[in-house]
Amino acid sequence: MLLKTFLLLGEEGISDVKKSFSFQTRCITKLYERVFDKKYKTADCRQLNFHCGNYPKMKLLGCFDGFCQVLVPYNIQEFLEYPDNKKKIEILELLKNSLDFVIRGKNWDPNPFQEAYERVKELNYINEFIWNKPKLSPNKKYKAEGTL
Question: Which pTM does this prediction carry?
Answer without folding.
Answer: 0.84
